[in-house]
């Protein structure tokens, strides 16, 4: 096997493992240094993962724009159907008419004077082709767009009632106690295992990335430049973007995390940045940390294997 073939085979195996992790519901992380082609493949896999029930609801303006585009597409399909019907009517041959049956003239023995009556016009027999019938066209595009428009309408307004009914019928999950250092939020992992991920000497001014069997995250040392963060405190959070799960990358030039998939930006403490085009996103989920001497431990999800 040549070197290029071996590299392609390894890329395939890595993509296969990535998709298996997504299907199993675990946090999956694409590799570094992706080519443009590989990046498109991984974005597609993340897109399918985002269709799960746990994915965030789309913005109302996005759903409305999608609905308008689908309606325009459906209108174009109807115009195509009308043109097809006109073309078929032009090509149809006229229906044949049944000629009247000529009866032999009877010659009377005597020729009485009979007043001639005007003959009634013959009415042609109706045929099946003369019955007007609207032809229907069910193209795959019109069927899909019709269903998608209905789905988009549910996203905008119709589905809100159903979601509210399900929420009322389902008891809320138990709320975990806020963990110190989580800025009052619920930690990402509540029943996990403690794992050593770094030492205090490794954590400087920049974010330190760590990887375990179940999660990829970042460690950050607070410098007391944001409300709710104690100076010197070790903060940990997941590296999975809250948009579609892509792994954010640390940029030391602006001290922010950037999502390589769709341009999301988070501050050094994991909050949505004002410079991000996705300001509605949630913060990067915090994780519970523990310092034992010079070693830093993080509560990570258990490995199901």
Automatic annotation (TrEMBL):
Any GO molecular function: 2 iron, 2 sulfur cluster binding
PROSITE patterns per the UniProt record, alphabetical: RIESKE (PS51296)
Domain of life: Bacteria
Rieske domain location: 194-298
The keyword Iron-sulfur belongs to this UniProt entry's keyword annotation: yes
Keyword Lyase attached: no
Key words of the record: 2Fe-2S, Disulfide bond, Iron, Iron-sulfur, Metal-binding
Alphabetized Pfam families for the sequence: Rieske (PF00355)
Record InterPro entries: Rieske_2Fe-2S, Rieske_2Fe-2S_sf, Rieske_Fe-S_prot
SUPFAM superfamilies referenced in this protein's UniProt entry, alphabetically: ISP domain
The protein, known as: Rieske domain-containing protein
Organism of origin: Reticulibacter mediterranei
Native organism taxonomy: Bacteria, Bacillati, Chloroflexota, Ktedonobacteria, Ktedonobacterales
């Amino acid at each position: 096997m040549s070197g290029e073939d071996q590299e392609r085979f390894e890329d395939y195996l890595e993509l296969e493992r990535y998709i298996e992790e997504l299907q199993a519901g675990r946090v999956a992380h694409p590799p570094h240094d992706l080519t443009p082609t590989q990046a498109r493949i991984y974005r597609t896999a993340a897109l399918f993962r985002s269709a799960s029930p746990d994915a965030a609801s789309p913005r109302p303006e996005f759903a409305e724009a999608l609905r308008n585009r689908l309606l325009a597409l459906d209108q174009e399909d109807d115009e195509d159907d009308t043109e097809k019907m006109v073309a078929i009517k032009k090509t149809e041959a006229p229906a044949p008419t049944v000629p009247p049956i000529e009866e032999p003239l009877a010659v009377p023995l005597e020729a009485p004077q009979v007043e001639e009556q005007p003959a009634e016009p013959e009415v042609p027999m109706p045929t099946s082709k003369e019955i007007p019938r609207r032809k229907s066209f069910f193209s795959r595009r019109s069927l899909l767009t019709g269903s998608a428009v209905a789905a988009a309408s549910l996203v905008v307004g119709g589905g809100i009632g159903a979601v509210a009914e399900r929420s009322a019928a389902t008891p809320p999950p138990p709320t975990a106690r806020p963990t110190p250092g989580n800025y009052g939020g619920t930690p990402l992992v509540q029943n996990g295992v403690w794992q050593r991920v770094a030492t205090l000497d490794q954590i400087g001014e920049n974010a330190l990335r760590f990887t375990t069997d179940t999660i990829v995250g970042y460690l950050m040392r607070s410098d007391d430049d944001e409300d709710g963060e104690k100076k010197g405190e070790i903060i940990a959070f997941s590296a999975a973007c809250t948009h579609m799960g892509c792994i954010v990358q640390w940029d030391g030039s602006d001290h922010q995390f950037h999502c390589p998939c769709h341009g999301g930006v988070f501050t050094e403490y994991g909050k949505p940045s004002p410079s991000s085009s996705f300001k509605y996103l949630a913060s990067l989920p915090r994780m519970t940390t523990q310092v034992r001497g010079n070693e830093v431990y993080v509560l990570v999800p258990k490995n199901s294997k």
